[in-house]
Design goal:
Layout (H helix, E strand, L loop, with lengths): L1 H17 L8 E8 L7 E8 L4 E9 L7 E3 L5 E6 L5 E8 L4 E9 L5 E6 L5 E6 L4 E6 L11 E4 L16 E6 L5 E6 L4 E7 L7 E10 L6 E6 L5 E6 L4 E8 L2 E9 L11 E6 L5 E6 L5 E7 L6 E8 L5 E6 L5 E6 L4 E7 L6 E9 L3 E8 L2
Antiparallel strand pairs: 1-2, 1-28, 2-3, 4-5, 5-6, 6-7, 8-9, 9-10, 10-11, 12-13, 13-14, 14-15, 16-17, 17-18, 18-19, 20-21, 21-22, 22-23, 24-25, 25-26, 26-27
InterPro entries: Cycloisomerase_2, Haem_d1_sf, Lactonase_7-beta_prop, WD40/YVTN_repeat-like_dom_sf
Keywords: Carbohydrate metabolism, Glucose metabolism, Signal
GO molecular function, one term: 6-phosphogluconolactonase activity
């Protein structure tokens, strides 16, 4: 009995040590996508220091047309970028995390104009591209060397369209996101006010297949844009570009049930708007949503950990115009926002207890920044 007790005493610390989570890196690489019609020439890479919030320039790859949205492979070996132009293309790059440099591999047609969003599965088998003016979603296979194959599938909704005749004259797909278990792909259509749901199976000739129901309807004229999931994967949050609101759904194995909608606008606000990006904090306690137009701010909401419902916490100006995109660093300590029309990227410190955006800790000047993605630095 004494021998058994001794063995338990020895093993317990070992077991406790084995279960200790791996610490997060102290440095990351921030990859910045831009519109290249102004002073920017392509994609830039900065080293981000998670202890201080500072950014240091590493490299830029020129000659990439309008890399307005990026995706980083799960192993950080590759970066994929849309080329948001009329012909519609998507490009692939080797990523060197030690040097923070990109090397072009190849590009392919997205079979639709103005691609504005790209995502990649964890196995690096498929790319999913949202073509805004083309009004469709495209699926492209990936090879082991990171190169992109020709598109194998496109899906388009032929209507009916939303009530805004200027913005909703046809389908405008704005995002394509995998479910946490990667069994489904969700894509928003600003033109039809729908969030579409498809089943995903890698390696098939047509990787996406229909499900029932095939979509959930969003507020008419709301213009669904981006989405994110709660930390427990039980809720989905959708930002309405034209409605300047966030809609919350309960989520269960491909099924969505709408539960709540909250405004991003302060009382009495009558200016122009254009809600853009949305993210849940790494600790799962808060949701952040950006708004452009005359608002140029980020709203903060707390997340009820049982119901997923949102409660307004704070609203903070972004010190620039058109905060099209933002990210929260993997440690949850800083929020970094890209102000497209004022050529600036700001780093804000976050209060992890209240969720509020605190002081500005760093700023960089860069032409037309519109997408920010993190990759672990080597």
């Amino acid at each position: 009995m004494k021998n058994f007790s001794l063995i338990v005493a020895i093993l317990l610390p070992v077991a406790a040590f084995a279960q200790k989570p791996k610490p997060l890196p102290k440095t990351f690489d921030l990859v910045v996508g831009t519109y290249t019609s102004g002073t920017s020439k392509g994609i830039s890479v900065f080293r981000f220091y998670a202890e201080t919030g500072r950014l240091a320039y590493l490299s830029q790859i020129d000659g990439v047309s309008n890399p307005s949205y990026l995706a980083v492979s799960a192993d950080s070996k590759f970066v994929y970028s849309v080329n948001e132009n009329d012909q519609g293309e998507v490009s692939s790059f080797n990523f060197d995390p030690k040097m923070g440099t990109l090397k072009f591999i190849n590009k392919q047609s997205t079979l639709g104009g103005s691609p504005c969003y790209v995502s990649v599965d964890k196995a690096n088998k498929s790319l999913f591209v949202a073509n805004y003016s083309g009004g469709n979603i495209a699926v492209l296979p990936l090879n082991e060397d990171g190169s992109i194959g020709q598109a194998v599938q496109t899906i388009k909704d032929d209507g009916p369209f939303g009530p805004n005749k200027e913005r909703q004259e046809k389908a405008h797909v704005h995002t394509a996101v995998l479910s946490p278990d990667e069994k489904y792909v969700f894509y928003t259509d600003l033109g039809t006010d729908k969030l579409h749901i498809t089943r995903y199976k890698a390696g098939k000739s047509s990787p996406l297949t229909g499900v029932k129901p095939a979509f959930v309807a969003i507020t008419p004229g709301g213009g669904p844009r981006h989405i994110d999931f709660s930390a427990d994967k039980k809720h989905l949050y959708l930002i309405q570009e034209m409605g300047s609101a966030v809609t919350m759904f309960d989520y269960n194995n491909g099924k969505l049930t709408q539960k709540q909608s909250v405004t991003l606008l302060r009382d009495g606000f009558t200016g122009a708007t254009g809600a853009a990006d949305i993210h849940v904090s790494p600790n799962g306690l808060f949701l952040y949503a950006s708004n452009r137009g005359d608002a140029n701010d980020i709203s903060v909401f707390s997340i009820n950990q049982e119901t997923g419902e949102l409660t307004f916490v704070d609203r903070r100006a972004t010190n620039g115009k058109a905060p099209r995109n933002f990210v929260i660093d993997p440690t949850g300590t800083f929020l970094i926002v890209a102000n497209q029309n004022s050529d600036s990227v700001y780093v804000y410190r976050l209060d992890k207890t209240t969720g509020k955006m605190l002081g500005i800790v760093y700023k960089i000047d860069i032409g037309n920044p519109v997408c920010l993605k993190f990759a672990p630095a080597n």
